[in-house]
Write a structure and sequence with these properties.
alpha+beta; 5-stranded antiparallel β-sheet; Thiol Ester Dehydrase, Chain A; about 170 residues
Length: about 170
């Protein structure tokens, strides 16, 4: 495990992965199964979380997953991910999913899905451990940070409201 650093920019841990979609990943409609796309999202986000935190991190929460267009067998799917927000031990990773037909370089990539995944960095005993702070380097990263804070606020408010409702049972 690497030595703990005070802060890091999102560019330090940004990751892009690509994969060609095969018929074994197709659903009953003949498109790539949404679960396969979610697996790619989780893998890419996990690589970002590991890089940013300097060690193991586990998926804690799938905050949002929006499927915008179907992905077809034979498409080249690319996931692009970066850290949007960092807490004491948790990180929100934003992932963009693009698809492009494998046989046509003329067709530009199509934005097919987006997701926000929360990871928690863990130590060798599986307990949360501190992660470096995030330093936004431009307006886009400042926007991402601001929007991630809104999502975090909504997650915590939803959790509190559910727990409050359950305590009355």
């Amino acid at each position: 495990m690497s030595e703990q650093r005070a802060s890091l920019p999102a560019s330090h841990s940004r990751v892009s992965l690509a994969s060609m979609m095969h018929s074994t990943e197709a659903n009953l409609l003949g498109n790539v199964h949404g679960g396969e796309i979610m697996k790619l999202v989780d893998s890419t986000a996990g690589a970002v979380a590991h890089r940013h935190s300097g060690g193991p991190a586990v998926t804690a929460f799938m905050d949002e997953m929006a499927f915008l267009h179907p992905v077809h067998v034979g498409d080249i799917v690319r996931t692009l991910a970066q850290v949007n927000w960092v807490g004491t031990s948790s990180m929100e990773i934003g992932v963009r999913v693009e698809a492009q037909p494998w046989g046509s370089a003329a067709d530009g990539p199509l934005h097919v899905a987006s997701a926000y995944v929360v990871f928690v960095a863990i130590d060798e005993d599986g307990r949360p451990r501190p992660v470096p702070a995030l330093v936004p380097e431009n307006r886009d990263e400042e926007r991402r940070l601001r929007e991630a804070e809104i999502r975090r606020h909504h997650r915590l408010a939803r959790k509190a409201e559910i727990e409050s409702g359950r305590s009355g049972d």
